[in-house]
From TrEMBL:
<feature type="compositionally biased region" description="Basic and acidic residues">
    <location>
        <begin position="1"/>
        <end position="15"/>
    </location>
</feature>
<keyword id="KW-0804">Transcription</keyword>
<dbReference type="Pfam" id="PF04542">
    <property type="entry name" value="Sigma70_r2"/>
</dbReference>
<dbReference type="InterPro" id="IPR039425">
    <property type="entry name" value="RNA_pol_sigma-70-like"/>
</dbReference>
<protein>
    <submittedName>
        <fullName>Sigma-70 family RNA polymerase sigma factor</fullName>
    </submittedName>
</protein>
<feature type="domain" description="RNA polymerase sigma-70 region 2">
    <location>
        <begin position="44"/>
        <end position="108"/>
    </location>
</feature>
<feature type="region of interest" description="Disordered">
    <location>
        <begin position="1"/>
        <end position="20"/>
    </location>
</feature>
<dbReference type="InterPro" id="IPR013325">
    <property type="entry name" value="RNA_pol_sigma_r2"/>
</dbReference>
<keyword id="KW-0238">DNA-binding</keyword>
<keyword id="KW-0731">Sigma factor</keyword>
<dbReference type="InterPro" id="IPR007627">
    <property type="entry name" value="RNA_pol_sigma70_r2"/>
</dbReference>
<dbReference type="InterPro" id="IPR013324">
    <property type="entry name" value="RNA_pol_sigma_r3/r4-like"/>
</dbReference>
<dbReference type="InterPro" id="IPR014284">
    <property type="entry name" value="RNA_pol_sigma-70_dom"/>
</dbReference>
<dbReference type="InterPro" id="IPR036388">
    <property type="entry name" value="WH-like_DNA-bd_sf"/>
</dbReference>
<keyword id="KW-0805">Transcription regulation</keyword>
<comment type="similarity">
    <text>Belongs to the sigma-70 factor family. ECF subfamily.</text>
</comment>
Amino acid sequence: MTRRCDVPSARESHDAPGSTLGERAAHALLAYREGRTDRLDAVVRETTPLLWATVRAQGVGHDEAADIVQNTWVQLVKHADRIEEPRAVLKWLLTTARRAAWDAVRNGRADAALRTDLPEDETRHAALPDATPSPDAQVLAKERDRILWAAFAKLSERCRELLHLVSLADRPDYRMISAAVGMPVGSIGATRGRCLAKLRTELDRMGGGAWI
């Protein structure tokens, strides 16, 4: 059952100063359920660059990324009545796009492995470098990741969301991040620095700071 008690009616204005992209997406979803698509169209235009950056950051090619982003919106329309928390629709979109990108990358690697065929000569039997990490390196990597994510989980939700969005692309679009988290563009860099400092403090406290 859809919970709408904490989200104003889609008929109320959602363009007031300070509204975030997540709030506008929530209003657009509610409006779409009422048969009005204009607000959803506006959110599609506004959010697509963020979805595009999310998918491309996973290593997906240009054409396949375009298909994934388009299918993400198709899935939203298909499941519009099943999303229980309208305020979570932006996170739902990002998660759906990211998971589709991961699947695309995995399938691409599997196809490439099947197509690989070394020539039938002495090079087929030549000793190739073993790219598999040694057991001790795997253990250290797992422990490093465990500590990193444990420290990350101790940050505020605002810090976690900001650091996640900044990490989506090599050159993050601060304008889109500003719209997503409701933070002035000029404050993003300084806030990011404070969040990273807090993460470093947690890592040092947990004994993982020397690994990054």
